[in-house]
Structure formats: structure tokens, C-alpha cells
Amino acid sequence: MKILTAEQIREIDLKTTTYENISSLELMKRASKAFFDWFTTRFTDKNLPVSVFSGTGNNGGDGLVVARMLQKSGYKVNVFIVEYSQHYSEDCAHNVRRAKVENIPIKKITSTGDLPSLSGFEIIIDAIFGTGLNREVTGIAREVIEKINRSGKKIISIDVPSGLSMNGKTYFAVHATETVTMQIPKLALYLPDNRNFTGEVYLINIGLNETAISDAKTAFYFITKQEIKELLKPLDKFAHKGTQGHSLLIGGSIGKMGSVCLASRAALKTGCGLVTAYVPKCGTSVLQSAFPEAMVVEDRNDTHITGIDFTIHPDAVGAGVGLSESPETQHAFYRFLQQNKSPLVIDADGLNILSKNKEWLALLPSRTILTPHPKELFRLIGVWNEDYDKIYKTREFAKKYRLIIVLKGAYTLIIDSENVYVNSSGTPALATAGSGDVLTGIITSLLAQGYEPLDAAKAGVFIHGLTANLSATKIHARSFTASDIIDNIGNAYFDIEK
């Protein structure tokens, strides 16, 4: 699914009205009806007082249409028009007139003295500004937003939280509890810098023209379940362990063997036919006891890896989990990179070793997958100013070394030299020790099964996140562990394939 800019979305709106021979008012009604359907499904108690804050542009028009629909359906609605400008868009002005005819209580806010008390309302619908805002919020609009943010009420933004910048850092905006965005994802809604503004983000279809969307060019995409479903390879009736790929997980050191156990279990659970772990001697009994399905190749050293010598021929390698950064291990990792020809995933200490020896990045096979969390990314690419700058610098880094970067977070980003993919699955439950080790095992498994590196990264990240979504009503987010991710990989496959 494409992520588009505000300018592209305006063009698609216009093309939709042209291609389908409808008015802009009709398109506004479609969008508002989609929001109304979402709202009334979620909030069924019509006695909850609702306040709608509208602006003077088309986003304000959306809010007015929603208010009309809610009142007609029996909800108790009041409308406040934030008159930051005396110029109303034609569609907004039309819906102000319609709302007055339908006797919806409307109050204009033009100065501080007009600010209403919000104590009598349970839900605030924010429709003050949309995606077209390209300046800092000032004046009466800022005062209104400050009051909304202090209200302590549930705040639902239509399309985007008012004040949110679409192409740079946001300093002031509505702090939405939930954002209901219209059909096309907006990158700003999924960036860590904006987490205090967006709340939970929901995507609703408003009937935009598919040809118009298809024509739009972009380098940003939103990963959906349907896309992953189409990526998954069918399981052949005559498949056996020799046809399902062989993963090699390299890592572990004394006190850190759990990470290799997690990565190895995840690789097998994701569908790999064979899994081998390369570990120091102290890890052999741990692996054989905790995960008997895995094969083990021992390093000659007891406490950490010093050699990485093996005679097997893995289809993919995942390296770095629990590896340690001892000088001997770093030297062994360098020799491994010089010789390795297999598709490769690097995580954890493997990334830290690379950050200390950046000239070794040139040794990585093309399309090697790196899976850093933000601190590991910082060690690799250096400081960034804000999220857009981080994305630009990561893409340049990926382009320079022909890499795929999986930047772990609430909405994990997958970045290669050309495109940026935003993952749609996952919950805060994944913020737990070992979660990254499991992801390394999942992606390595998919690589070993023959998936292209980008597809393995996208599918792996989505499956990893989906396990948390599927467990949300059974395992509290605070109690979710990395082993729970592994235990639910099969359920994730069921959910994707249904």
C-alpha cells in the first residue's frame, strides 16, 4: 500500500471527482460516512456527549458532515468552529449552512473569550486542520488545541491530528487518543517523533479512485497483511527437511546463550527444515537441552567464539546474537565475512562489531539484512536531527553498502537503497528481552527457504509483529516474552493465510 504526500493526496482527490464524475461535496460525504461508520461501531452509547472542533478548510467540512450524521443518528453533538481565518473553503461553508438548517448547536471561536468549557463532553472530534497545513499553529487555533490537550478527554482526530507536519518535525499539535486517517497512509503518523500526537492510528477506506492511486509515484509503502499473504510460498505436498532450507545461527557467549536458543527456535518455527547453531563450547549442552531439534557446531573456545569454522553449507546465516565483542571474536567475525557467500542477517553484537570496523561493511554480500535498534543504528550511521533526517541518512547508508536495514521500533521501518517500508503489525508487547533475537531467527529462516532478501525482511517483520496482535487478549503486554512470539508464529501463519 502506497504512502503518499499531502500534495499527491490532493491530486488523487481531484482525480477521483473527475474520473467518477462526482462533486467534491460527494467525496467529502464519502469520507465523513466512512468515519461515521468507524465511530458508531466503536462508540455505541449515544448518550456520550460529543464535541466536534472544525476549522474553516475541507478538514473542517469533514467534521461538520460527521456532526450532522451523528446528530441524525441520535448522538448529542455540539460543534465549535475555530475561525482562524475568515475565509472558508466552499465545501466547508456549504456544510456550515447545512448544519445550521439541521439545528446543530454551533459556536464560533474567534478569541480567547470564546473558548468553551469541555467538562460536559466525553469525546472530542478534532477536525481543525488537515494534511494541507504547512506552518506552525498560532493564534486562536493554538489556544484551542492547548485547551483540547489539557481536557483529559478522549480525542479522535479526523485524518491527522491538527498541527501535525507532513514533511518535517512537529513541535505542536493535537495529542490525539486515536487518529482515523483516510485510506492513504501518511508517513508522519508512523514516526517515533510523533508518538505523542497520533495515538492509535486507524486506516479507513473512503472510496478514492484506484486508478488515481495506482498512477501516483512513491518510494514509501505501508506493509499490509494482504501483501504478506501474496508473498508467502505454498508448502509443497512432497516437502521434506532437505527442501525447506538450512539456517545457520552464529552467536552466543558465556551468559548469553539464551539469545541463540531463541533465534534457533524461531528459525525452525518459521518453517526452516534444518537449523544449526554455531556456538562456543559452553553453549552445546544448553542448545541440546533447551532445543533438541537444533544441530550444534562447537567453537574450539569455551566462553566465546574464536573461529567460525564449519563444513556445512547453509542456505542463509544469521550472525551476532549474544556474540560478544571480544577481540578474538571480532577477528573471527572478520575472517567469516571474508569467506561467506550465503545470504546474511546481522544483529546485536554483529552490528556493534561492524560499527567499530566500518571498513568491513564492504565485505557484506549485496542485500545483506541488518536489524538495528535505534542505538545500534546511531553507532552505524551517526547522529540525526529528526525522523525524516534519520530515514534519509539510513537510505544513503543502505545505498552505499547495498544493504537492507530493518530499523526496529513501534512501526518497524525496512529501508533499502530505493524505498522505505513501514510495518503495520505489532504492539508494545514486543518491547521485551530477546524479541530482536527472535526476529533474527525468523528472517534468517525465510532467507534459507528461498525468499528474496527484501521479501524475507518484510514478511519476517510482519509475522513477528502479528504474534503480539494475536496474543493481545490472551497475554497482557507486560507479561509477553520472546518465547511467546515463537509460540505464536504458527498462529500468525494461520491468520495471514485465512
Task: Characterize this entry briefly.
By secondary structure, the chain is of the alpha/beta class. Helices cover 40% and strands 15% of the residues. It folds into 2 domains: 6-218, Rossmann fold; 228-497, UDP-N-acetylmuramoyl-L-alanine:D-glutamate ligase.
**Bulk shape:** elongated
Structural class: alpha/beta
Q: Kindly state the mean pLDDT as a whole number?
A: 97
The structural domain count equals: 2
User: What percent strand?
Assistant: 15-25%
Question: How large is the count of helical segments?
Answer: 18
List keywords for this structure.
Rossmann fold; alpha/beta; elongated; ten-stranded mixed beta sheet; 498 residues; 18 helices; UDP-N-acetylmuramoyl-L-alanine:D-glutamate ligase; 2 domains; 17 strands; single chain; 40% helix
Task: Walk me through this protein's architecture.
The model has no long low-confidence stretch (mean pLDDT 97). Helix 4 links the parallel strand 2 (77-82) and strand 3 (106-109). 48% of the residues are buried. This protein has 2 domains: 6-218, Rossmann fold (3-Layer(aba) Sandwich), CATH 3.40.50.10260; 228-497, UDP-N-acetylmuramoyl-L-alanine:D-glutamate ligase (3-Layer(aba) Sandwich), CATH 3.40.1190. It has helices at residues 6-19, 24-42, 58-72, 90-101, 139-150, 195-198, 210-215, 225-231, 257-269, 284-290, 327-339, 349-356, 374-381, 387-401, 435-448, 453-471, 482-487, 489-497; strands at residues 50-54, 77-82, 106-109, 123-127, 154-158, 178-182, 200-204, 220-223, 246-250, 274-279, 295-298, 316-319, 344-346, 368-370, 403-407, 413-415, 420-423. With 498 residues, the protein is α/β, with parallel strands linked by helices. It is elongated. Helix 12 packs parallel to helix 13, helix 15 (435-448) packs across helix 16 (453-471) and helix 16 (453-471) crosses helix 18. It has a 10-stranded mixed β-sheet with strand order 8-17-16-15-14-13-12-9-10-11, sandwiched between helices. A 7-stranded parallel β-sheet has the order 3-2-1-4-5-6-7, with helices on both faces. The protein is built from 18 helices and 17 strands.
